Amino acid sequence: MSIIDSVWHYIDKYYISGIVYDTSYNIVDTLTYAIVLGISLFWVLKLLGKLDVNIDTRFLIAITTYVIAGSSLRVLEDSQFFTPPLQYLFVTPLIYFFMFGVTISILSVTIYLERKGKIKDHNTFFGYAGAFWAFFNIAALIVYDGIANPVPGAAILFIGITMTGIVYIISQKLNFLLLTDKVNISILFAHILDASSTFIGMDWLNYYEKHVVPTFFIDLAGKFISHPSIVMIPLKLIVFIPVLYVLDNDFKTEKEKKLVGLMKLTILVLGLSPAVRNTLRIMMGV
Questions:
Q1: Which residues neighbour 234 within 8 Å (Cβ) at sequence distance 6 or greater?
Q2: Burial classification of residue 24, based on how many CB atoms lie within 10 Å of its CB (0-12 exposed, 13-18 middle, 19 or more buried)
Q3: What is the mean pLDDT of residues 230-247?
Q4: pLDDT for 91-125, tens place per residue?
Q5: Under a CB-based contact definition with an 8 Å cutoff, are residues 81 and 144 in contact?
Q6: Where are the alpha helices (DSSP H) in the chain?
Q7: Quick one: residue 232, left, alpha or beta (phi over 0 = left, psi -120 to 50 = alpha)?
Q8: What is the DSSP letter of 224?
Q9: Residues 6 or more apart in contact with residue 227 via CB below 8 angstroms
Q10: What is the pTM of this model?
Q11: pLDDT for position 134
Q12: CB-based burial of residue 66 (10 Å sphere; 0-12 exposed, 13-18 middle, 19+ buried)?
């Protein structure tokens, strides 16, 4: 086998086949995508700086609509709504590049229109565009698949809202301002919702976990408890509360605060995206 054949075999084994067959991640592609994400953050920070985008609460609300749009688009792919080769565009990680391209394009257009005096506020129109896209995708899902499992879907939302509510109330009682902050508690809600969807999907509906790190901890918990995927809920709290604390307390300069905003946006997307996808898949029985 030539060097070119060996390299191609390696790429196909660890990257391409996972996209084509939508299989579980491996340690190689997981590390690669993590590195790409880290490098991309600094490029995105520069781009948002050029666009003069302020990553505040209003922007995060607007961007959430695009996360829902992307996740619902991913479920449409899961439902075999698209056929090859188009469907490969909507498989992770390619769908992230696609969604970023579309999202940043719409954002740029709304900012341009605001600067030209055509609209008053780019965040409003940016958010409405994303909401319309998300609504269209979900409507297409309901028409194409129908809602097969409303109760498990409601259970995921109940667990996510209840657990987040408990954390919020305790934080208020203890005057722990970190988790009474709207952005921080929203990030925590997204990840608890993700963990809840994993728990309901795996332990009650026979879904499986595709990601390397959660699989490790779930397998480990399986040696001690009968419903091991529930371990993801406390793990999310153990990991992300300290992360949010560091972000809010260890970065003080104006430049660092902009990076913090981007990092919080990234953490929100990484939690909300699989949470919405998992919940929709379970509800549609995909």
A1: none
A2: middle
A3: 95
A4: 877 888 899 999 999 999 999 999 999 999 999 99
A5: yes
A6: 3-11, 17-21, 27-50, 57-78, 94-115, 122-145, 150-173, 182-205, 212-221, 232-249, 254-284
A7: alpha
A8: T
A9: 199, 203
A10: 0.89
A11: 97
A12: buried
State yes or no: pLDDT of 27 exceeds 90: no
**Cβ partners under 8 Å of residue 248, min gap 6:** 178, 181, 184, 260
Peptide bond into 150 cis (omega under 30): no
The token pair that represents 108 in the structure block:
């740029």
Cα 8 to the center of its chain, rounded Å: 30
The CA angle 99-130-55, to the nearest 5 degrees, is: 80
Question: Exposed, middle or buried by CB within 10 Å (0-12, 13-18, 19+), for 20?
Answer: middle
Q: Is the pLDDT of residue 15 over 90?
A: no
Half-sphere exposure (Cβ direction) of 222: Cα atoms closer than 13 Å = 10
Query: Which letter, b or e, does each residue of 153-179 get, where b requires 16 or more Cβ atoms within 10 Å of its Cβ?
Result: bebbeebbeebbeebbeebeeeeeebb
Give me the DSSP letters along 64-106.
Answer: HHHHHHHHHHHHHHHTT-S-TTGGGGGSTTHHHHHHHHHHHHH
Would you give the distance in Å from CA 202 to the centre of its chain? 19
CA distance 180 to 40: 30
Gap between the Cα atoms of 70 and 74, Å rounded: 6
- pLDDT digits 0-9 by tens, 37-94: 778 777 887 888 888 888 888 999 999 999 999 999 999 999 999 888 888 888 877 8
- Residue 259 has a pLDDT of 85
* Distance, CA of 206 to CA of 198 (rounded, Å): 10
